[in-house]
Amino acid sequence: MTELLRGLDPLVGGAPRVLVLGNMPSVMSLASGEYYGNPRNAFWRITGALFGFDPDAPYPDRVAALCSHEVAVWDVLKTCRRVGSLDSSVERDSMVPNNFDAFFAAHRTLQRLVFNGAAAEANYRRLVGAPSLPSVRLPSTSPAQTMRYEDKLGAWRAALAR
Question: Which CATH number does the domain housing residue 42 bear?
Answer without folding.
Answer: 3.40.470.10
